[in-house]
Design goal:
Blueprint: H1 30-40, E1 57-64, H2 71-90, E2 98-105, H3 110-122, E3 128-131, H4 135-148, E4 152-154, E5 167-169, H5 178-188, E6 192-198, H6 201-216, E7 220-227, H7 235-244, E8 248-252, H8 257-267, E9 276-279, H9 284-290, H10 292-295, E10 299-302, H11 311-324, H12 332-351, H13 356-363, E11 367-370, E12 373-377, E13 384-385, E14 389-393, E15 399-404
Parallel strand pairs: 1-2, 1-3, 3-4, 4-5, 6-7, 6-8, 8-9, 9-10
Antiparallel strand pairs: 10-14, 11-12, 12-13, 14-15
Helix pairs in contact: 1-3, 1-4, 2-12, 3-4, 5-6, 8-9, 12-13
Amino acid sequence: MRSKVQFEQHRPIHRERGSDVSNINRRNFIKTSGAVAAAAALPLSMFDIGAARAAGTVKVGILHSLTGTIAIAEKSVVDAEMLAIEEINKAGGVMGMKIEAVVEDGASDWPTFAEKARKLLEKDKVAAVMGCYTSASRKAVLPVFEKLKGLLYYPTYYEGLEQSPNIMYTAQEATQSVIAAVEWLMKNKGKSFYLIGSDYIWPRTTIKIAKATIAKAGGKTVGEGYYPLGHIEFSSEINKIKAAKPDVILNCVVGGSNVAFFKQLSAAGITGKNQTILSLAVSEEEVSGIGADNTVGTLTCMGYFQSLKNPANDKFVKAFKAKYGADRVTGDTLACGYTSVYLWKMAVEKAGSTDVEKVVAASSNLEFDGPEGKIKFHASNHHLWKHARIGVFKADGQVDMIYESPLIEPNPFPKL
């Protein structure tokens, strides 16, 4: 019998026919919500896009966490986005205009993200923003972008259940990540799962979707736990994992907490050699902070790996290392951030305008050969067709891909 799970989501202005929009229990962020509401209540000025095009330049906002617990995952996304801007400017810019980047630090704090988004749109009058990492930060800025009619390119895999007219989603939603991962794990690694994540909307919603997918496929969830962002003590949860003896640990821990989590797993004798561990928020970039010796043999599910072989990725990796250092690595969110800038450029030139509505309209079915291969925007739901890829971390922190799906049509409101 088909299992159904009810979710809450940001309701789109335009939905695809046949999508199933249910109600979800949104994990409360009372302080954040209050800050966003307060920001939205401030007097608004008309957004003059022409100001973003003054003196032969066009302003683009870069809004990520340069400090705080999420910086381990997010700072390098700025590097990738700035690389794309540099490349575009060297090639003549956008419609003959050079891109001027305005960089702001969200500081791993959701009210700060909302405040900085308002500044970028009202004061700096940027034409678009490349930004956010966590779903909490995206939820914090969403009402600001909708109120001020701005445009956000969001480069991080997320839980889906959202479709804003003012956001372009350039990474995987749930059907292209957690659902694909769980289905592969059920076929190849086992049927009992222990689920662990950071305590905010993306891990909780992703794990809720995972549980529904596990149950539907005849599997079993044997435990789950959640911890605040920045948490560094996992010994009690690891003891529960050892007692439960799951076939699979599905890891949705985010940011700097992964350093402590993987080191403590290893200290407890749980490694990729004796336990299937699949992470949904650990790429090559995070491993550079966690330490490859703590992740070797564990799995990751992403849309992109540095090890992918295609001309666009060869160019991206070579340029990234040349600019930032031979020891630097690329990862999924970096590739999506890099791609986001190019997708915006292509849409602007197709539309012949930086006007947000015209850029969004021009993005429909827009195709791009990027570092992750060929991708394209869906005709109407603002998400990209994506591959789901599963790989094993090696001793050098790179990934050996063991599974690649066909291009998956984005479905941010899945029936479960």
